[in-house]
C-alpha cells in the first residue's frame, strides 16, 4: 500500500476520499470498532477484532474519508481480483454518503490499478450490508474461487455464519 500519496480519488460533501497516509492508519481500528457497535446493538455477539496498523499497511490500498478519517475502505487481492476486505464508517457519520463515496472510490482506484472486478463478503440481510452493495452494482456470486472459499471457511471458523447468512458479491466494470 502506498501511504505517501495524499491524492484525492473522489469528492463529496463533508470531505473527499483519499489514499490513507501513515498518520491515518493508527486511527482506523477505532473507526472499525465503533462501526461494529451497530451490530452489537442488534444483538450480535462481538465481531472479530479490528485490523491492525500492520495489516492495513499490507493491503493493496486503503482509502479514507475525512481528515481525521471518519471512514475507510481496505482493499486486498484475492485470486487476482480486488477484494473489499473492510468498509467502515463511524456511526456518528453514517447516513451522510461516506460509505457510498468510499465504495465508489475503492472500485475506481481498483480499476485504475488494472482490476476490472471487485469482490466482497458480507451479511445478506442487513440493510447496510448486501442490500447496500447491490444498490452499487454488486451481485451475489455463487461459484467461488479457491481464495474466496478460504475466506468463507475462515469466517465460518470465526462464527460469523452463526450471526446471519453470509454472501460473496462481485462487481464488474464491464
TrEMBL record:
CDD domains (UniProt xref): NAT_SF
Coiled-coil regions listed in the entry: none
Protein's organism: Pendulispora rubella
Pfam families: Acetyltransf_7
Signal peptide: none
Domain N-acetyltransferase: residue ranges: 15-161
The entry's keywords: Acyltransferase, Transferase
UniProt protein name: GNAT family N-acetyltransferase
Amino acid at each position: 500500500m502506498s501511504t505517501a500519496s495524499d491524492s484525492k480519488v473522489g469528492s463529496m460533501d463533508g470531505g473527499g476520499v483519499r489514499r490513507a497516509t501513515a498518520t491515518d492508519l493508527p486511527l482506523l481500528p477505532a473507526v472499525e470498532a465503533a462501526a461494529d457497535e451497530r451490530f452489537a446493538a442488534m444483538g450480535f455477539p462481538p465481531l472479530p477484532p479490528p485490523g491492525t496498523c500492520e495489516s492495513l499497511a499490507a493491503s493493496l490500498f486503503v482509502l479514507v474519508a475525512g481528515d481525521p478519517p471518519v471512514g475507510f475502505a481496505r482493499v486486498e487481492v484475492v485470486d487476482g481480483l480486488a477484494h473489499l476486505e473492510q468498509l467502515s464508517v463511524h456511526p456518528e457519520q453514517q447516513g451522510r454518503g461516506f460509505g457510498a463515496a468510499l465504495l465508489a472510490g475503492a472500485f475506481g482506484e481498483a480499476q485504475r490499478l488494472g482490476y476490472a472486478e471487485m469482490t466482497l463478503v458480507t451479511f445478506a440481510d442487513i440493510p447496510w450490508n448486501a442490500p447496500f452493495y447491490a444498490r452499487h452494482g454488486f451481485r451475489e456470486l455463487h461459484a467461488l474461487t479457491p481464495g474466496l472459499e478460504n475466506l468463507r471457511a475462515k469466517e465460518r471458523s470465526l462464527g460469523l455464519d452463526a450471526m446471519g447468512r453470509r454472501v460473496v458479491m462481485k462487481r464488474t466494470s464491464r
